[in-house]
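Throughout our pipeline, every protein is held as a single compact record rather than as scattered files. Such a record has a labelled line for the sequence and another for the backbone structure tokens. This encoding replaces a full spatial description with a residue-level series of whole-number codes. For reference, a complete record is included directly beneath this paragraph.
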Amino acid sequence: MKVVQRYGEIPEKQWSLLASPLGNWIVEWCDDGVISLSPNGKKESAFSHAVPPASVTEAWKAFWEGNPFYINLCQIAPLGTFSMRVLEITSCIPRGEVRTYQEIASLAGNSYGARAAGNALRRNPWPLFVPCHRVIRKDGRLGGYAGPSGTDLKRRLLQYEMVPGLKNSHCSS
């Protein structure tokens, strides 16, 4: 993952829908990389159906197949040093594993910053490419997740990735 910071004038953006086993997602990109990725609760969208660059479709396919991928991400709004560190650490969580908000916060340099880590992940513009669904509460519950179906989508993503123990009752929202 490479993050290109682009503040001020934003290059021409394009949008498209990406299909997945768990529904459609909206991807927004520019020449520098993916600007945002978000679940789409609707089957139809007002977004243009431009063809995403090969790098986006290859990373998308690799994610859903459980294969490693590399993607350029374009940051158009400042997120702060701690938030960016949280996103970098989260991007390294392997498929099929989870970390706690507390673990992520500690690795980012603030051992008391679990809530701040959660807030940083809530603002993650690149879910799946930066797999914030792999971060849970220290008591084993899922915690929150943005998007039209929230924690239900988080649970389904983790089940899709076959996270061990997810079907146990301790992994409820």
In short: The first strand starts at residue 2 and ends at 5. The domain at 2-75 is CATH 3.30.160.70 (Double Stranded RNA Binding Domain). The two ends are 29 Å apart (CA to CA). The chain is about 30% helix and 15% strand.
